[in-house]
Structure prediction request, 365 residues.
Amino acid sequence: MERGRGEGRWAAPGRVNLIGEHLDYNGGPVLPIAIDRHTTVTATIRADSDIRITSEAELGAVRFSVSTKPGEVDGWAAYAAGVVWALGDAGHDVPGLDMRVTSDVPLGAGLSSSAAFECAVAVALRDLAGLDIDDVALALLAQRAENDYVGAPTGSMDQLASVCGRAGHALLIETRVPSVSAIPAGWNDDGMQLLVIDTRVHHALGDGEYGRRRSECEEAAEALGVDLLAVASEADVLGIDDPLLRRRARHVVSETGRVGEAATALRSSDWSALGGLFVASHASLRDDFAVSCSELDTAVAAAVDAGALGARMTGGGFGGSAIALVRDDCVAAVAQRSQNAFAEAGWEEPSVFAVTASAGAGRVA
Ligand code: GLA
Prediction:
């Protein structure tokens, strides 16, 4: 192989979801941005059909065959093995590779470090093997790796955001199609920052509870006789007998409405409207969908008290991160207020940093 063609470096971003939480597996719209935090894969084609992978964050190398099957690789390397498997299972020829992984997407912070890893491997393989797969299809193969190899029953948002991200834009994703359209995200030009408040909490029960919410949504959809809950109306929801399923469905339907309103607010740079929608989304996730936790509620309340235009949990919940839309002159106060609130509660100091809307996964060297 000619030098340079069989090797290179690829990077894929994490994501922050602006709004539209727990809608992707319900067929609803979501509005994420890819962020300026990346997982990077340096890869070289091998002469045999083995994959050998090392990570800056892990000891030792993991080795597996390009014909790996679910169940064969577990732990951190399963995300890469899952992508290799999903591509092969879809009929693509995958070459043997040496890969080295590094990342500055914080792990377990609800910023999709796993999707960033999967998508970095996926774009590297697409380029190195010359595969004819468009971005949306590639993201869905990365989602398949997560669902059917790693075994996490997630929706498609994280991988679609990581592959299809666009600098300076949010992505309005209609998950039912799926289709992705970019909307300019101009808060930085208007003197504002999007802050992440990483609570550093990762509740162990989160994974099981995520699957439980999915099942509850499926039950609610079945009760209404629809395939996907996001197509239900507010009137439909009132007709669900079971009070718990009614609350879950009310979140899905009200959040679906908020995504449309948020897209309008974004297009017209109506930042106070967007902030108000963040706050309403958080209340719905806390009260109706029950996926927040004390640390997320405290971070959101502290940000709003300190003058943020709005704040909400982002991602699956049960820990992870909140986001806050904050005027430049208020950033220090929001960071300080959330740090103080966490100190008063006796919790570890949250990590507060700004993110910008960034390009999707691709070759960087
Ligand atoms: C996690 C999942 C996504 C999505 C969000 C909640 O990040 O990976 O597919 O369901 O939770 O919106």
Observations:
- The chain has a mean pLDDT of 96.
- The longest strand covers residues 29-45.
- Residues 17, 21-22, 24-25, 154-155, 157-158, 315-316 surround alpha-D-galactopyranose (CB under 6 Å).
